[in-house]
């Protein structure tokens, strides 16, 4: 059994080396126990031979209550246990931990790059962190937690000059009506979730804070203002949530862009995610701009509603998407004003639900 496991791990390592050296990859995760110091050194040296910088992450938990909570929230939803009774799954995983403990050796190699994470982020120890990417991984790990929370994504309401980025026009009459309907739909869904949680766990979450993040576009924060009238809501304007700047394509349809900038249009079709029109942003630019927002979303323990232009929502959704999305599909994602998206991050992905925004009677 041990030999077969080592053979499978070595095959994964070869795949990672190929992905990072010739496959265009920048980062890969090798998910394995790596209990022994000698095995870690072997893996470390193997990657270093290919100019790949390995970073080990050791998760240490000294609090049994946290261990039990983590097993029930995280481990029993893994592919290994998805069909098993939760109590049996929890017992089996504890037995797996007990079997591994005699062979476990903590990381002490000062030459290696590693992060030690204690008690779900209570404190961290970092060693020999090299380069930008490893530094970003450290910052990312500092923001992780296992608390339950929900992220809602909704478009800004319609403005009185919908086609113009520069005009930054206020909400139209239709936009105000949409904002009211969105507010009512979000609160209906929150009430429904609160009732489900109370029935399942006995925990009253009705006083839980909803944080609303909105772009600095007038139509976005005017949409968000309808939520500020409700208790337990905090509204915050975020400049980073602004929509994609269209540059010279301001107020132009795709057909008009094709006629006016034919070569640029062909470049866009070849790579819609990275292509940047003159004086404009690309979707890649928007994603890079939104990185601090996404890291803050990872840190947040409260429920979050993001109200922003469709281009910003596309990039945020792509990060949390239940299934990985190729870059080329991100500019095509649709967020109609007839729905909002509910995302529930979990240890093994993100659950998605699209909920209709039903008009309410006056």
Q: List unreliable stretches of 5+ residues.
A: none
- The helical percent reads 40-55%
**Head-to-tail CA distance between termini:** 68 Å
Count of extended strands: 9
- Largest sheet, strands/sense/barrel: 6 strands, mixed
Class per helix and strand makeup: alpha/beta
Strand share of the residues?
A: 5-15%
**Going across the major beta sheet, what is the strand order?**
6-5-7-4-8-9
Q: Compute the CA-based radius of gyration.
A: 24 Å
Outline: globular
Chain-averaged pLDDT: 90
Reading the helices and strands in chain order gives HHEHHEEHEHEHEHHHHEHEE
What is the helix tally?
12
Quaternary state of the chains: single chain
Provide an overview of this structure:
With 362 residues, the protein is α/β, with parallel strands linked by helices. 41% of the residues lie in helices and 14% in strands. The protein is built from 12 helices and 9 strands. The protein has helices at residues 2-21, 37-48, 64-73, 86-100, 131-142, 173-201, 218-225, 254-260, 262-270, 283-289, 291-299, 310-320; strands spanning 56-60, 114-118, 123-127, 151-155, 210-214, 233-237, 303-308, 339-346, 349-356. The protein has a 6-stranded mixed β-sheet, sandwiched between helices. Helix 6 (173-201) packs across helix 7 (218-225) and helix 8 (254-260) packs across helix 9. The longest helix has 29 residues, at 173-201. It is globular and about 70 Å long. The N and C termini lie far apart (68 Å). The mean pLDDT is 90.
């Amino acid at each position: 059994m041990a030999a077969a496991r080592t053979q499978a791990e070595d095959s994964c390592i070869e795949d990672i080396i190929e992905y990072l050296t010739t496959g265009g990859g920048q980062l890969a995760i090798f998910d394995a126990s790596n209990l022994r110091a000698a095995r870690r050194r072997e893996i470390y040296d193997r990657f270093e031979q290919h100019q790949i910088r390995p970073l080990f992450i050791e998760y240490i938990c000294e609090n049994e209550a946290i261990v039990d909570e983590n097993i029930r929230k995280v481990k029993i939803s893994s592919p290994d246990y998805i069909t098993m009774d939760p109590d049996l799954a929890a017992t089996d995983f504890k037995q797996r931990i007990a079997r591994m403990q005699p062979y476990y050796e903590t990381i002490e190699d000062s030459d290696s790059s590693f992060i030690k994470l204690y008690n779900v982020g209570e404190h961290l120890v970092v060693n020999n962190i090299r380069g930008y990417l490893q530094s970003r991984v450290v910052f990312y790990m500092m923001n992780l937690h296992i608390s339950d929370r929900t992220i809602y994504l909704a478009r800004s309401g319609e403005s009185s000059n919908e086609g113009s980025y520069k005009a930054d026009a206020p909400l139209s009459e239709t936009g105000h009506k949409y904002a009211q309907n969105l507010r009512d739909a979000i609160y209906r869904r929150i009430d429904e979730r609160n009732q489900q949680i109370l029935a399942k766990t006995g925990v009253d979450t009705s006083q839980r804070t909803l944080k609303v993040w909105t772009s600095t576009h007038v139509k976005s924060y005017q949409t968000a203002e309808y939520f500020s009238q409700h208790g337990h809501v905090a509204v915050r304007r975020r400049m980073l949530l602004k929509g994609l700047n269209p540059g010279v394509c301001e107020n132009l349809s795709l057909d008009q862009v094709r006629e006016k900038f034919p070569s640029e249009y062909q470049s866009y079709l070849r790579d819609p995610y990275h292509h940047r029109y003159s004086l404009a942003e690309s979707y890649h630019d928007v994603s890079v701009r939104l990185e601090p927002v996404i890291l803050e979303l990872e840190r947040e323990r409260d429920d979050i509603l993001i109200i922003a232009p469709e281009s910003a929502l596309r990039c945020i959704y792509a990060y949390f998407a239940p299934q990985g999305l190729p870059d080329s599909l991100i500019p095509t994602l649709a967020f109609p004003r007839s729905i909002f998206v509910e995302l529930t991050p979990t240890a093994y992905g993100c659950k998605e639900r699209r909920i209709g925004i039903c008009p309410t009677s006056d």
